[in-house]
Design a protein that fits this description.
By secondary structure, the protein is of the alpha/beta class. The protein contains 12 helices and 12 strands.
Length: 335
Amino acid sequence: MVSRMFKLVGIAIALCAALCLAACGQSSSGSGAGSGSGAKADVSGKVVIGTLATEDILPMWVAEEEGLFKEAGLDVEIHIFQSATELIAGVVSGEVDLAMTDPMVSAAIVANSGVDLRVEWITLGTTAKQGRFGIMTSPDSGITSLADLKGKGIGVGSNTILEYVMDKLMERAGIAKEDIVVEEIQKLPVRYQEMQSNSVAAAALPGSLLSLGESQGCILLADDTQGDNISQSIMVARADFLGKGNGTAIVEALKGVWDDAAKRINANPESYRALLVSKANLSEAIANSYPISEYPTCQLPTNAMIDPVLAWMQEKGYLEKGLSYDQSTGAFKLS
C-alpha cells in the first residue's frame, strides 16, 4: 500500500514541468569550499533550503542569525514548509535546491518521481542520542508496556520515519508484525490529541511532543535513544543543482557553515534556546526544559544506516522501484 503522502507526491509530479537532471559527483568532506591552489571558490547565486519547523536544522538558523552565510559569501534562503507533503512538492518541483528531510522521503522521491537527489550530510542521528522518536500513551490508558499494545491501534503516519521507528521498537520488544495495528493519523497535533484522549491506544511521536506529553503526565513506552541507532534526519541536494554552474561549490561552503554553527551550539547550547523555541515552535510548557541536542559535523550516512530503511520500504510496498544507496557518494541508485 502506498501512503497518502506519496499519492500526493504523484499529483505534485504531474503538475511539475519536465525536469532536466544531471548526474554529478560530490565531496563528502565537512570542510568549506575551495580549490587546491588556495583560490576561493565561486559561491555566488541564491540557494534555497527547504525544511519543516524542526530542531534538526537549528545550525542553519544559527548561521542565519549570526551572519555565517554572509561571512562565507553565501546567499541563502531558508523556506519553512507547513507539512511534509508541501516540502516533498517543493523538492520535486525544483522550488528548493536542498532539503532537510529523512531517508524515507528521499528514497521515495528518487524511486517514485525520478528526481535525482544526493544525500549531503546527517543533520541529526550520527548516534542514537541525537534526536528522539518514540511511542507514548495517555496517563489513564492502563497501558504500561509495548506488550500491552498487541492488537491495539497506534497512531502514526504511513511511510514515515515515525512508522519505521515504531516498527523497530515493537520488533525489539518481541511484538509480531501481525499484532501491530496502525491507525493512520498524518497530522502530528491531531495524533497527539487522539492519544491524549484515548481515541487511540498510543501514538508514535517526535521528541518535542514526547517531551510535551511527559510534562502532562503521559507515559513514554519506548524511544530510540537506547540501543542501535535507527533514525536519522539528512540534508539532500537536487542533483541538477549540483550539476549546474557552481552548485557543488555552494554545497561545500554550506557544509563548512554547518560545521561552524554546530560547534557553536555544542559549546554553549543554552545560548541558542530562545532561537530554537521560536523557530521550532516549541510549546511554552517545555520551552525552558526541552533538551537541546548535540549536533554532528558533516558526514554521510552509512549503508548500515540506510540499507535497513530501504529494505523496510520495499517490504511495505512503499517503493515502486528497487533502490540502493552508495555511502561513498550519497547517491541513491535505481536497480
